[in-house]
Specification:
There is one protein chain. The chain has 334 residues and is α/β, with parallel strands linked by helices. The chain contains eleven helices and ten strands. It folds into two domains: 127 residues, Nucleotidyltransferase, domain 5 (2-Layer Sandwich); 174 residues, Nucleotidyltransferase, domain 5 (2-Layer Sandwich). It has a five-stranded mixed beta sheet with strand order 3-2-1-4-5, sandwiched between helices. A five-stranded mixed beta sheet has the order 8-7-6-9-10. The longest helix is centred in the C-terminal third of the chain and has 26 residues. The structure holds 5'-O-[(R)-(carboxyoxy)(hydroxy)phosphoryl]adenosine and zinc ion. The site of zinc ion has 5 residues, from helix 3.
């Protein structure tokens, strides 16, 4: 079966082709225009999707070495995300499905992230625990089958990526902030500053990153008053350590509580060097299988959308619909 998938929920225009479960193309165009504004500008995002969508879909099709006529089904993100962005992808998908007389399947963006481990390792057994960490979401799931999962916990304020971005902004490191913090942290001391680990001692699997932001702001103000240059590397290493400690500790507790043999991570923040290393180490200590998909499956991408559609079509759980609506806030993840 050949599935063409489209993903335009935020600021990446993406299309992919999956043939009989294998990814044949996965094209992602990240919109650089937002960097000028220090964050995503929704109106600009939808305009960029409009400008790019046709060529990205064409590239995905030609890179896969197929013809549009060979496509059996279309899968598209219907939410959550920015309304204008979601509309561009879903209207394009519906139009194409009508023209080609093939079914179109709406896919939930976070569900696609949480199954990314299975896109990377199709033979990975169920159940598993999946940590989804991006600029918009931070949640832990127990994944029981291709059709069934449970949210164990979510952030109660900022997403982890949002915390990275806001901290980078305070330190004058630009947007997006995660990669810059990752780089500076490599040369810093993670114990230089004792930043709070939000809710780390609690039984719940919920997260909170707003206290860290406030603590960092206070520290930056105090250091600025001394007139000394800011110890950027140490601030980055200590802030990153605070975020990573909580993510790793809660994911390990969730894996133990659900007695699962495997842990997966996905979302843009899973690019973080310390997070990947610490997760791998802690899983190894506990004898857990750890799957950190290649980054092109972790960031916003359409291969993960195609993959969820394929799993659901195979299990009979997916219902095609040309009448679906976008759901910008969609199913709450907590
Ligand atoms: O999944 P993604 O590409 O987009 C969505 O938010 O859906 O994630 C982007 C987020 C940004 O907040 C960015 O700062 C963060 O992922 N990020 C990182 C790293 N690379 C990207 N955070 C920490 N360390 C990184 N190396
Ligand atoms: Zn995402």
């Amino acid at each position: 079966m050949t599935i063409l998938a489209i993903e335009t929920s935020c600021d990446d225009t993406a299309a992919a082709v999956l043939i009989d479960g294998s990814v044949r193309s996965n094209i992602i165009s990240s919109q650089a225009i937002h960097d000028l504004y220090g964050g995503i500008v929704p109106e600009l995002a939808s305009r960029e999707h409009m400008r790019l969508i046709a060529q990205i879909v064409d590239t995905a099709i030609s890179k896969a070495g197929v013809d549009l006529a060979a496509v059996d089904a279309i899968a598209v993100t219907h939410g959550p995300g920015l309304a204008g962005s979601l509309l561009v992808g879903s209207q394009y998908a519906k139009g194409l499905a009508l023209a080609l007389k093939i079914p179109v399947y709406p896919v939930h963006h976070i569900e696609a992230h949480l199954y990314s481990g299975y896109l990377e390792e199709p033979d990975l057994a169920y159940p598993s625990v999946s940590l989804v960490v991006s600029g918009g979401h931070t949640s832990i799931f127990r994944v029981d089958s291709p059709d069934s999962f449970t949210v164990l916990g979510s952030t109660t304020d900022d997403a982890a990526g949002e915390a990275f971005d806001k901290i980078a902004k305070m330190l004058g490191l630009g947007y997006p902030g995660g990669p810059a913090i990752d780089r500076h942290a490599a040369a810093g001391n993670r114990d230089a500053f004792a930043f709070p680990r939000g809710r780390i001692g609690e039984d719940s699997f919920d997260f909170s990153f707003s206290g860290l932001k406030t603590a960092l702001r206070r520290e930056v103000d105090r250091l600025t008053d001394t007139g000394e240059p800011l110890p950027i590397n140490d601030l980055c290493a200590s802030a990153q350590a605070a975020i990573v400690d909580v993510l790793v500790s809660k994911t390990m507790r969730a894996a133990a509580a659900s007695a699962v043999p495997a842990v997966t991570i996905s979302g843009g923040v899973s690019a973080n060097t310390e997070l990947r290393t610490r997760m791998a180490d802690q899983c190894a200590v506990r004898g857990l299988t750890f799957v950190a998909p290649r980054m092109q499956y972790c960031v916003d991408n359409a291969a993960m959308i195609a993959s969820v559609a394929a799993m659901r079509i195979a299990s009979g759980a997916a219902a095609p619909s040309i009448h679906f609506s976008i759901e910008p806030k969609a199913i709450r993840t907590r």
